[in-house]
Amino acid sequence: MLASLSGLQACQGPPLWIAGQLGDPALLKPAPPVTATELLDLRPQRAKATVILDDRPAMDIVVSFAQQPDGLWRLETRDIRRSYLQPQADGAIHIVREEQFADAVRVSYDPPLPMLPATLAAGKPFTGSSQIRATRLADGSPVDSGRCDYRIELLGVQAIRSLADTPDAFIVRTTRHIDLALADADVVLTSAFVPGRGVVAQRIVTATRMLGLIPVRHVEQMQRR
C-alpha cells in the first residue's frame, strides 16, 4: 500500500484534515438509501488531493477518473494505485483489477469485486467473496492467489469541512479479509462520497501478516483539496 514518493510534491500548507475522522459516530447523521450512480458520477474528472502515508509528511498529488477504450473506468491516485472499474447493468460499480505501484503488483478479482453495490442503505451491509490473483506488473508472472471476503456498509452522512462549501458526504465503510497462500491481510476502507464529485476523502488501514513474520500495519489517508 505504500507508494513511491517520486514525482510527488510537498504540500504547501497543512490542510483542514478530516480523513482521520471519517466515520466517527459523534459526527455522523442518519443517511437515506443511496444508489451507486448517485455516489460515483461516471464522467471524466481530475482533482488535486493531499495524501498522508503512515507518518510521512503530507504530499500533494493528482486523482483522475477517465473511461478507457475497452469501456472500463480508470480511477488513478498518482504514484499510488490504479483501479479499473466496470459499471453493471443495475448501476453497481465493480473493480476488475488494481495496480499497486509500490509493490509493483497487479491484483485481479474473479468475479469482479464490488466497489459500490447498486443501492446502499444503513443497517443493510452488502457481503460476498471473490477469488484474487496477484501478478508482477513488470512481466505478469504470478505472485500469489487466494480469496477475498468483503463487507460494504453505509455508515451515515458527515459534513466534510475541508472543502470550501462544507458538503455532506455519504460515509461508506468497506472491510476486506484477504487470505493468500503466503500471507493474509485485513483492509478497512472508509470513504466519503459527495454526489457529483465521487470520493472526496478516504482512509485505508491495512494489517498484513506474512508467514512467520510480525504483522505490519499501514495507514493511507487522502482528501481532495
By DSSP, the count of extended strands is: 15
Query: Largest sheet, described in full?
Result: 12 strands, antiparallel, barrel
What distance lies between the first and last C-alpha atoms, to the nearest angstrom? 22 Å
CATH architecture label name: Beta Barrel
Strand-residue fraction?
over 45%
Number of helices: 1
Q: What is the total domain count? A: 1
**Mean pLDDT, nearest integer?**
88
- CATH topology name: YmcC-like fold
Indicate the percent of residues in helices: under 10%
Overall geometry: globular
In a few lines, what is going on in this structure?
With 225 residues, the chain is mainly beta. The protein has one domain: YmcC-like fold (Beta Barrel).
Account of the 3D structure:
The chain is mostly beta strands and 225 residues long. It has one helix at 36-39, and strands at 9-10, 34-35, 45-53, 59-67, 73-77, 81-87, 93-100, 105-116, 119-120, 126-136, 142-159, 168-180, 183-194, 198-210, 216-224. The protein has a twelve-stranded antiparallel barrel with strand order 3-4-5-6-7-8-10-11-12-13-14-15. A two-stranded antiparallel sheet has the order 2-9. The two termini are 22 Å apart.
Write the layout of secondary structure elements.
Layout: E1 9-10, E2 34-35, H1 36-39, E3 45-53, E4 59-67, E5 73-77, E6 81-87, E7 93-100, E8 105-116, E9 119-120, E10 126-136, E11 142-159, E12 168-180, E13 183-194, E14 198-210, E15 216-224
Antiparallel strand pairs: 1-4, 2-9, 3-4, 3-15, 4-5, 5-6, 6-7, 7-8, 8-10, 10-11, 11-12, 12-13, 13-14, 14-15
